[in-house]
Amino acid sequence: MAAIFTVDPRSGVPLYLQLIEQVKRAVALGTLGPGEQLPTVKALALDLTINPNTVARAYRDLEHDGVIDTSPGRGSFVRMDGSVGESRRAVDDVARSVLGDAVREAKTLGLARKRAAEIFGEQLDRWFPAGEKE
Amino acid sequence: MTYAQVLRLRRALLVYGTVVGGLFLIVVLFGHLPNATFDVETTFGHHATKSVSSINLSGLLFFTGWVTIIFATVISTSLNRENDGVEMVWTKPIARGRLAFWYIALDFGAILVAYAFAVALCVLALASFGLLKYVSVDGRTIPTLVIGLGVAFMWYGLLQGLSSWQRGGRGGMVIGLSWAAAFVLTSLAGATAGGGLPLLHSLFTALDVVNPVAYFSSYTLSGYGAHASPVLPQALAGTLMRSVATWGIGILGCAAAIAGWKRLEV
Amino acid sequence: MSSTYAIAIRDFTKRYGSFEAVSNLTLEVEPGSICGLLGPNGSGKTTTFKCLLNLARATFGTMQVEGAPVQPATFEELTYVPERSALYEWLTLADHLEFNRRSYRKYDAKRADELVNLFRLERKKKVGKLSKGQQTAVALILAFSIRPRILVLDEPASGLDPVFQRVVLDLLIEAAAGGATILFSSHQIGQVERAADRVAILKNGKLIVDGTVDSLKGSEKVVEAIFDQMVPEVDGLATDARVRRVERSGRILRAYVKEDSEGIARRLSEYAPKNVAVMDLNLEDIFINAVGGEIPMIRGGE
């Protein structure tokens, strides 16, 4: 179970945010299926060797975002709803984060907005070839 | 929470028992050799007889007293021994003063055990030579017992009081210096007793008030009751005064040791 | 939310004669959290622990554990692992465990056994004959075997190999997961970064950084400006209260800021750089910037 999540303590991004993103990504990709149980706070903290309060906070936020459900005594589970809204929101969050990083990186490299958009278009063409649906 | 000290004392008593027991064994073995002859002498010099008509118990208690005094001084720096790494005992759920008190109580118990053990060995040794029936008791027996233990406790208290607040590891040095100082002082007091150097003699006898050896040397022991001691002040005459002095100083020394240890900062 | 801090140090000052080892330190540790105390050697970390635990007396200030000054009874729930070994070298591990069994009400023999097996230690060997790492393991076993509510550790894994350090960290995390409060000092910034909720950095006895790891990472940033020509003089940048340190090399100017990185970025933009970027720092960078004012900078040839 632990192999699904990795976090980088040395990153400038707070660990709990990294973890939230990891879980959402797993849900979006289907690595964590609906109704599947997440590791306990203690187990995950030990596996990742991070503070248990960090894990607890991530789980709380995930519950607040509607991605997981926590019942005392039983543990934390990915929500069963599987409704399009939940998973799409999860996916959107992940994509937003990834693309946001990419744009920021492009800007740091000194690209102008127009040039960045051009290159982005090139990549869209590359990964969504004309023939493919959606 | 005094477990470490219990183990320490156990080890000390074992060593003591082995050494003293070994000595006795040698004496007994030699004594039982076919051609052995021996004189039984008490320590009280001119009152002794050289025949085996009586063996004064107080003489034996003088010996056991000294052996116990040695033991008492060796174990006396038990608080100082904790001072290197004192976090171990100072982060336990027991108050420092209470812990120090129990250390001292345990030490005292060990001193009593050492004394009893030495007496028992004497009895056994005498028994092996069939001399027990000659043992006699007189007016000096009780004083020798009480002051012997008193001196052991007094010296213990002085050493605890001097060492408990010092950095760890200093205990041995304090013990060694105290032995040297005690004997030197007693000799000086005895040497100036003739009357030629009254001022110095007064000084030395005054200092001898806190000198354990002065109370248990042959200078003093021959003067119970009637005689004053050449090495102690006139005021400290008689068994009662000397008992009060030795035991009292012992208690004061222990109290100072506890107070000093409580105030220590690491 | 408990209104009592597990550990509350307020206005703590410790003087040795005329030398002030710690000045006006205020540090509050929430129950169930892990607080890492960082600082160069001699910055006052050990002094703080000693005064907290009554091993030494504070010159000024209050130190409280669970709302009250430390008393003997506190040590039923609090264990201390000092930096230098305080074990009895002439006793065995078994003796030390027995010592604990007799001293504490909450001694857990099963837990002690688990830990002895985890560290693969011999019970009958004299502690003085063990390696430094094994001695640390003994100290940790003794500390954890009474299931304390509060743990205070001074450099718990110093001089130990990385595998061992990870084991120590796991023990701390496990204890915290069980609700324990942990205050520890360490030179291993990586450890603190992973395990601590909160970080406090001491330098020369003064608190110079105090905050949660997350908020520190959020506010401590480096603003990097790249110029076309040589870096211009920026008035008052180095003395700006928001800036910890300034670095200039060729056409690059870096300002390590403790807060308001956006504001500093805007200031630098006024000097018309080619590019201004705000970048994250990890805890090690934050520490070095806060503390390493006098670190010699080794430069390659120009």
Provide a short characterization of the protein structure.
The complex is a heterotrimer of chains A (134), B (266) and C (302). Chain A contains five helices and two strands, in the order αααββαα.
3D structure, described in words:
The complex is a heterotrimer of chains A (134), B (266) and C (302). Chain A is mainly α. Chain A has one domain: Orthogonal Bundle (Arc Repressor Mutant, subunit A), CATH 1.10.10.10. Chain A is 57% helix and 6% strand. The longest helix of chain A has 25 residues, at 84-108. Chain B has helices spanning 3-31, 57-75, 87-90, 96-128, 141-163, 171-191, 198-207, 212-215, 218-221, 238-262, and strands at 55-56, 135-136. A two-stranded parallel sheet of chain B has the order 1-2. Chain C has helices at 45-52, 93-103, 109-119, 132-144, 162-177, 189-195, 213-219, 261-269, 283-291; strands at 7-16, 19-29, 34-38, 60-65, 78-81, 150-154, 181-185, 198-203, 206-212, 221-226, 243-249, 252-257, 275-280. In chain C, the strands form three sheets. Chain C has a six-stranded mixed β-sheet with strand order 5-6-7-3-8-9, with helices on both faces. In chain C, strands 11-12-10-13 form a four-stranded antiparallel β-sheet, with helices on both faces. In chain C, strand 6, helix 5 and strand 7 (181-185) form a beta-alpha-beta unit. Chain A binds chain C through residues 9-16, 41-42, 45-46, 49-54, 108, 110, and chain C through 32-34, 166, 169-170, 173-174, 176-178, 190, 193-197, 213-214, 217-218, 221, 274-275, 277, 279-284.
